Structures are given as structure tokens and as C-alpha cells.
Amino acid sequence: MNTSAVKPLAPGETRVRSKAAAAAAAGFTGLAAFEFALAAGAPLGRAAMGGAHTYLPAGLRIVSALAVVVWLLAALVVLRRGGYRVPLISARVSWPGTWVLTGLLSLGVLVNLASPSGWERYLQAPITAILAILCLIVARSRPQPTDPAENQGRREL
After folding, report:
1. Is residue 28 helix, strand or coil?
2. 78-104 per-position pLDDT tens digit
3. CB-based contact 25:54 (threshold 8 Å)
4. Hey, how many other C-beta atoms are within 10 angstroms of the C-beta on 12?
5. Angle between helices 58-81 and 125-140 (to 10 degrees)
6. How far is Cα 91 from Cα 86, in angstroms, rounded to an integer?
7. Where does the pLDDT of residue 29 fall: very low under 50, low under 70, confident under 90, or very high at 90 and above?
8. pLDDT of residue 7
């Protein structure tokens, strides 16, 4: 990721939101790396998708490849909502996007806890819970205007 394109917005930015967004983005990037390894054929399948396979079959590798894109987009959405400049994600998308992530991650905790895989229950569920809490912190924060042109005529969310 080009660090010149992703910068904090203002010196007075709420530090909690900014730090929570950065931590969530780091977590999403870590999940993307894990999914990339699965898609590339690493023997990590016992920690994902129910844990039925050591090496994921071709169909699940494709799902993992798509998950890489989803997790990287999630990182960008939460960074944008957290007060960072992310040119690919609009401020209008980041607020509902962060709430959607919060809800999906909360459901993900339940799915991981119900999994027959010990790795998913004892590793993935806590990681997912932490990411859900971080997204909740970011989603509940008051939005900061990022671009005056983008915020004209817009109510505070």
C-alpha cells in the first residue's frame, strides 16, 4: 500500500478511532495474507472453512482468493472511516461499510465458534471478535469531514 496515499486527516483527529482503524486494517491485512496462503496451496486448511481439508480443493482455493480481495477492501473501508485518506473509498461508503463489517464479523464469531475445527473455535473466533469490536469503535465514532466538496449538503451521520 502506498503510504503517501493513506495519511491521517488532521492533527486533532480522535486518536482512539484512528488507532482502532489502524489495528483493524492490520488484522484484515493479516487475514488477507492467510487467505492468500490458502489460495496458493499452503497446508493451513484445518484452520479455515470448517477444517475438513489440510489442503483446500480447487473450489475453496478460489473462495480464498476472493476473500483476499474482500479483506483488503475491508481494510481500506475501515481506514477511510478511521480518518485516513484512502482515495479508492468514498466517505459515503465507509460509514455503512464499517457497520456492515461489524455485523458480518459478529456473525463470523458465531460461525467460528460453531465450527468443528479447533483452530477456528480457539483462534479464528477470538480474532474475529477483536476485529468486530475494533470495527464497532470505528463505526460509532463521529465522522470527520475529509473533503469539503464531498461533504456539501450532507448531514452528520
Report:
1. helix
2. 999 999 999 999 999 999 999 999 999
3. no
4. 7
5. 30
6. 9
7. very high
8. 54
* Contact indicator for 58, 52 with CB cutoff of 8 Å: no
Phi and psi dihedrals of 6, rounded to 5?
A: -120, 100
User: Residues for the chain: how many in total?
Assistant: 157
* pTM of the predicted protein model: 0.82
Cell digits of residue 36: 492468500
Say which amino acid occupies 25. Answer: A
Measured in whole angstroms, the distance separating CA 73 from the mean position of its chain's CA atoms is: 7
Q: Could you tell me the three cell numbers for 53?
A: 481439508
| Dist CA 121 CA 130 (whole Å) | 14
> What angle do helix axes 15-39 and 125-140 make, rounded to 10 degrees?
140
DSSP annotation of 84: B
pLDDT digits (tens, 9 = 90+) for 111-145: 999 999 999 999 999 999 999 999 999 999 876 55
User: With contact defined as beta carbons under 8 Å apart, do 137 and 78 qualify?
Assistant: no
